[in-house]
Design a protein that fits this description.
InterPro entries: Ala_racemase/Decarboxylase_C, DAP_deCOOHase_LysA, De-COase2_N, De-COase2_pyr-phos_BS, Orn/DAP/Arg_de-COase, PLP-binding_barrel. GO terms for molecular function: diaminopimelate decarboxylase activity; pyridoxal phosphate binding. Its EC number is 4.1.1.20. The protein is α/β, with parallel strands linked by helices and 420 residues long. It folds into 2 domains: 166 residues, Lyase, Ornithine Decarboxylase, Chain A, domain 1; 243 residues, Alanine racemase (TIM Barrel), CATH 3.20.20. The chain contains 12 helices and 20 strands. The strands form 3 sheets. Strands 5, 6, 7, 8, 9, 10, 11, 12 and 13 form a 9-stranded parallel β-sheet that branches. Strand 6, helix 4 and strand 7 form a beta-alpha-beta unit. The longest helix is centred in the middle third of the chain and has 18 residues. It is globular, with a radius of gyration of 22 Å.
């Protein structure tokens, strides 16, 4: 198993078994059951610290990547503000003890209820996404809500090398005010002239899982004249930095990404304070998902299906985006993996495939604990109860201690909102 795809503290004990945070993964599977999400707390903290250093403290954690109260508390403890996009994300961050002033409220369709809650709590920033949202803010302030500090989200209209489903800065996008159409300038003028808000900056986000730093530079170049012309104090470049998921993929580190952004801003004469919103690059490689093998079905001349006790409900990215992952056995993490399998879940869908061409040792057997790395972002957060499968627990590990931060769902949880 490639070491670079495992969390920072990953190591092996005397018999070749994987330890993360000083805890044996196979023992965690016995203690907490499977499926199970295991996060390396030291890895999470290290990436938060790297982001803080790279952007001089002006950085928000993009909570859509992975959010629970423990994660919100950890990011805030490390000095990050937190980017939230719904009332639910906002509520979890607040329940974790994060002050409203340390939250950045995103979203292309914030409701009046969400905006009213955020404004009256004193949210740090509102990233405005539409003229309708400007209307809502002005109406709420007229009704007595405090005037917020806002950033205008600009759609630079550039193509990026990523999946269409996660490209957000292209001309055809539901996000932001289009630059080329003149909407961005009109939105900036309206916000700047409104007594219902304080315009403090501009914001862009070009997409997710972007490997090329040049894409970010292209977006900055497109937006440079607008940022310089308005002379606002803040410029947020969003997130979207990609991470390697499989052998052979490479991506810039957070430090390298930040350096490229700063260099581009300097060349363009952008003097605003530059900040960013990393999410995937903080959480993805910190987590692995642990399953137990239930069946091995060999179809001669076709493929070998290995079915586990989770599936598309705990990691929908392969089904949604065709995302690739590696497979390995935590009991023998460094073992050769000559056998090719297709790792599938237990859902009633032929497309319920976690890894199409997974590599495993020849001695894989029913009952084995099997894992997929780099599942710390957009697995748990995008998960579902499809087929009424119970969502798996989340464990943080550090210094030999395993801490349950999200318990496994129960049938009672499923029935709690079902009124019969």
């Amino acid at each position: 198993m490639p070491r670079q795809l495992l969390p920072d503290t990953a190591e092996t004990d005397g018999d070749g078994s994987l330890l993360i945070g000083g805890c044996r993964v196979v023992d965690l599977a016995e203690e907490f059951g499977t499926p199970l999400l295991v996060y390396d707390e030291a890895h999470l903290r290290a990436r938060c610290q790297e982001a803080i250093a790279a952007f001089d403290g002006k950085v928000a954690y993009a909570s859509k990547a992975f959010l629970c109260r423990a994660m919100a508390k950890l990011a805030y403890e490390e000095g990050m503000s937190i980017d939230v996009a719904t009332g639910g994300e906002y509520g979890i961050a607040r329940a974790a003890g994060v002050p409203a002033a340390s939250l950045v409220f995103h979203g292309n369709n914030k409701s009046g209820v969400e905006l009213n809650m955020a404004l009256r709590d004193g949210v740090g920033r509102v990233v405005v996404d539409s003229f309708d949202e400007l209307d809502r803010i002005e109406a709420l302030v007229a009704d007595g809500a405090p005037a917020p500090r806002v950033l205008i989200r600009v759609n630079p209209g550039i193509e990026v090398h990523t999946l269409d489903e996660v490209a957000t800065g292209v001309p055809d996008s539901k996000f932001g005010f289009p630059l080329a159409a003149g909407d961005a300038e009109r939105a900036l003028a309206r916000a700047g002239g409104s007594g219902a808000m304080e315009l403090v900056g501009t914001h862009i986000h070009i997409g997710s899982q972007v490997f090329s730093a040049a894409n970010f530079a292209d977006a900055l170049a497109t937006l440079g004249p607008t940022v310089r012309g308005w002379g606002l104090d803040e410029f947020v470049v969003g997130g979207g930095l990609g991470v390697p998921y499989v052998t052979g993929e490479e991506a810039p580190t957070i430090t390298q990404w930040a350096a490229g952004i700063r260099r581009a801003c300097d060349e363009l004469g952008i003097t605003a304070a530059v900040s960013a919103e990393p999410g995937r690059s903080i959480a993805a490689a910190a987590g692995i998902t642990v399953y137990r093998v239930g069946t091995i079905k060999e179809i001669e001349g076709v493929r070998t299906y290995v079915a586990v006790d989770g599936g598309m409900s705990d990691n929908p990215r392969p089904v949604l985006y065709g995302s690739g992952y590696e497979t390995f056995l935590p009991r023998s993490v460094a073992a050769e993996r000559p056998r090719t399998i297709t790792l599938v879940g237990k859902h009633c869908e032929s497309g319920d495939k976690l890894v199409v061409d997974g590599a495993v040792p020849d001695d894989l057997m029913v009952g084995d604990v099997i894992a997929t790395p780099v599942t710390g972002a957009y697995g748990q957060s995008m998960g579902s109860n499809y087929n009424k499968v119970l969502r798996p627990p989340v464990v943080f590990v550090a210094d030999g201690d395993a801490r349950l931060v999200v318990r496994r769902e129960t049938l009672e949880d499923l029935l709690a909102t079902d009124l019969g």
